[in-house]
Amino acid sequence: MWPFRRRASAERERRSELLPPAEARYAVIDSELTGLDPQRDSIVSLGGLRVAHGRIDLGDRFYEEARPAAALTPTSIVLHGITPEEARGRPDIGGILAGFAAFCGGDILVGHFLEIDLHFLRKELASSGLPALENPALDTWALYEWLASRQPQDAGPDLPRVREPRLPELAQALGVPCRDAHNALDDAFVTAQVFQRLLHCLPRWGIGTTDALLRIAAPGRGNGHPLSPIPLA
User: Fold this and answer.
1) At residue 48, what are phi and psi to the nearest 5 degrees?
2) Average pLDDT of every residue of the chain
């Protein structure tokens, strides 16, 4: 079954590579964590929204909280608002990963500093004996950095420059309402709106296929990545 799934996913990926980016399907995802150390920390919640044909489908979403293997710290509780008492009543991460993988399907994964989420998802999927996500993936910060560092092909204005790579700052610069709070579904919604605005910019920079989009927005490519040695310029 798993090899068939891998073949089907590869076939979908090949078909989507030549699509205009606005016609492709995306799963915009986010995770909340007990911390940023993949060896020590674990996932607290997962959220996702579908973007298809350039539109955010609010009815096609995923949100589940998990009982983390790592202890919740006061700092993490302040960030995502999930208390130890609430977490104790949730399934462990293995109990929600199959549903999350089904939500992602064969769509292109999108996230803000997505490599962080992928680090933890790889670890948890392997620990749960589940197949890895093999979806193509792109990062909104890497995409923004690539576009903002180059001139558009028309005479219109450049993208606004953002020095701080956090999602709220980028969202504000692009006119996306965002409160500085951490919830996996809320952050996925903000990320989806940021991606939607960048998606509409792509023709101005000559990006006409999802293959080209994936090349310029690979996860881990952007400066300022919390798990990258590259400093913020």
Assistant:
1) -160, 155
2) 84
